[in-house]
Specification:
It is built from 8 helices and 12 strands. By secondary structure, it is an alpha/beta fold. It folds into 2 domains: 153 residues, 3-Layer(aba) Sandwich (Rossmann fold); 106 residues, 2-Layer Sandwich (Dihydrodipicolinate Reductase, domain 2). The longest helix has 14 residues. It binds nicotinamide-adenine-dinucleotide.
Length: 275
């Protein structure tokens, strides 16, 4: 590792809450170098990415020039990686462009549809380019999901409650959708109705994801990112809960993903697949 050139990393969404954490983490990783920082926020244009992130100057100005930055990353001797923490509306196009340039995407932005992920998987496969889509980079969430899979063998009733800050654009969270998918893959249906329900207010019972699993989304200032999976059976409730109190919790997963994506030749979805 000591003799290898550092991995050049471009951060898309560099000025955001997650982007700033990623800049700090990459700056502190001896096997990585921050090649570029992109953000569309005009107030951040040309500001030093390190200063914006709060880790001191890194001599990398924030730019809004996405494609030229990808072209630069593509010319590096070592495979470049683009970490994306931007917005659900633009992430699909950004990831497709990165793959087209041969730059490996590590995608934290949530909100991609199943069809978009499938399309990106086919595109990455054709281009023999690694791509990681990780709805949640925290190890605690991976452990919660594994515990939920175990519990789902014994419980037929489950509801997911995800709680986030009120700046979050997509609902339900990518993690909640992924958790429901994982439980649905157990090959059984959940929540058989025991009564004819009538919603007096639309959405009161949440949204129905795969195999009858319900997801409820809470948005409040003061929250960061939290998820409960509640299993119920006659006479008992089994609750699994994960709370994020600092975005630093995602960084070991982000750094691991940057290292792993350079070894991949196709798209992989979920942190549990690369641990
Ligand atoms: N996978 C995970 O573990 C994880 C954890 C936290 C947040 N997220 C997701 O990451 C995303 C970003 O979250 P955040 O809290 O940092 O949001 P944020 O709003 O604080 O930051 C987003 C940043 O991206 C910039 N931006 C938006 N569109 C852009 C574009 N097309 N090109 C370049 N820059 C652009 C914005 O100007 C902003 O600075 C959300 O989708 C969120 O759900 C994922």
């Amino acid at each position: 590792m000591a003799n290898q050139s550092p991995i050049p990393v471009v951060v898309n969404g560099a000025g955001g809450k997650m982007g700033r954490e990623v800049i700090k983490a990459v700056a502190g990783a001896p096997d990585m170098t921050l090649l570029g920082a992109i953000d569309l926020n005009p107030e951040l244009l040309n500001k030093d990415a390190g200063e914006v992130a709060g880790c001191g100057p890194l001599e990398v100005p924030i730019t809004n020039q996405f494609e030229p930055m990808l072209a630069m990353a593509a010319q590096e001797k070592v495979l470049g990686v683009m970490v994306d923490f931007t917005h659900p509306k633009t992430v699909y196009d950004s990831v497709r462009s990165a793959i087209a340039y041969g730059v490996r995407p590590v995608v934290g932005t949530t909100g991609l549809s199943v069809e978009q992920i499938q399309d990106l998987a086919e595109f990455a496969e054709k281009a023999s380019t690694g791509c990681l889509i990780i709805p949640n980079f925290s190890i605690g969430m991976v452990l919660l999901q594994q515990a939920a899979i175990q519990a789902s063998k014994y419980f037929d009733h489950v509801e997911i409650i995800e709680l986030h800050h009120n700046q979050k654009a997509d609902a339900p969270s990518g993690t909640a959708i992924q958790t429901a998918q994982m439980l649905a893959e157990m090959g059984k249906s959940f929540n058989p109705p025991s009564v004819a329900e009538e919603e007096k207010l639309a959405g009161a019972r949440g949204s129905v994801a795969n195999e009858g699993i319900r997801i409820h989304s809470v948005r409040l200032p003061g929250l960061i990112a939290h998820q409960e999976v509640m299993f119920g059976a006659p006479g008992q409730i089994y609750t699994l809960r994960h709370d994020t109190s600092d975005r630093a919790c995602y960084m070991p997963g982000v750094l691991l993903s940057i290292r792993k994506v350079t070894q991949l030749k196709s798209l992989v979805y979920g942190l549990e697949k690369i641990l």
